Amino acid sequence: MIESLRRPQVLAAATRLLAVALLPAASLRSPGRGRYLACQWALAMRYPAEDLEGLNEPARAAFTAARTEAFWRHRQLIGLTSGHRDAADQHRLFAEEVHRTGSVTAARRRVLPPHESAHVRGTALDVRPSEGAAWLERHGPQYRLYRRYDNEWWHFEYHAHTVPMRLPDPDSLRPSSMARVAS
Question: Which Gene Ontology MF annotations are present (predicted)?
């Protein structure tokens, strides 16, 4: 039990040590941006399955800048669980949630259909671990990254020109008249 509780701490410490070891090479490769590059390299090794492709460029830049600050200034790792999804993947996730919950309304509390999803637009980020999400919730607004839903601690969205309202769940986006019709 204690071993499983310590594993994330050990991996985080190893990732920080790796970034420090990579710093000279990163500084040679990109003068003036060595800390940024070493951080991205180390996090790519820590979270090898993450995929930043498909995020729109401002969202991607905001996320990588935020997690670089979290990493070097606050010793906090932030990984990406899910970013951009194509419409077919989003539709599959929505259909699976409808099947699992038995209703469109219940499914919408967790997954939106493709035409409403910020993941399809490339502006949504599902992050990990929970400590990283907590950091992003506190510091993300300076990068235009906002936690959108009370029921999803991991879900953040990039909003360049607005501060979005925090909602109880994704289904809260629908006008109540639409919610009655769709149920």
Answer: carboxypeptidase activity
